[in-house]
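Input record (Table S2, row 175):
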Amino acid sequence: MSKQFQFKLVLLGESAVGKSSLVLRFVKNQFDDYRESTIGAAFLTQTVTLDDQTIVKFEIWDTAGQERYKVSLTQAPMYYRNANCAVVVYDITQASSLDKARTWIRELQRQADPSIVIALCGNKTDLAVRRQVTQEEAKKYADEEGLMWFETSAKTGEGVSEVFTAIAKKLPLSA
Ligand code: GDP
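Output record (guanosine-5'-diphosphate complex):
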């Protein structure tokens, strides 16, 4: 008999870094170059099977809609309240997006549940010729803050499932 554990996961980061695209890749294994910002279902779910006995089900909340309605940082705690894990995304071709990611991480460290599992994720590795954020810089920052760090491409799918599997492995799974 396998056991299923459910966790709330939120995505945070500057607009257009690829948060919704990462969710679409992870949940449906699709990518859309011309996708409009998502509004619709409050959240999507996807499971990660760790072994025969253990299935982790993610309830994924994407901020896309919230940004559109200009929900401010001060209202954001409503969104990540009770979140078990967060993927904070930046775009490796936009240096400013790493600054925004740092702001979100500080915010989570101050306001979210102290047990929250945070992954920092540099997206759009397929555009590496336009890279502005080095791997060294991002990795150093993640190490200093004790965060997991990944690079992904929602477009090619590179690295995407690894982010969610690594988070699943870090979550507290108790019988
Ligand atoms: P969000 O606002 O953070 O949710 O970002 P979106 O998921 O809406 O993506 C913003 C834009 O970047 C869209 O045009 C996507 O097609 C594009 N995009 C997202 N991820 C990638 C990626 O890994 N590579 C490339 N080349 N484009 C991406």
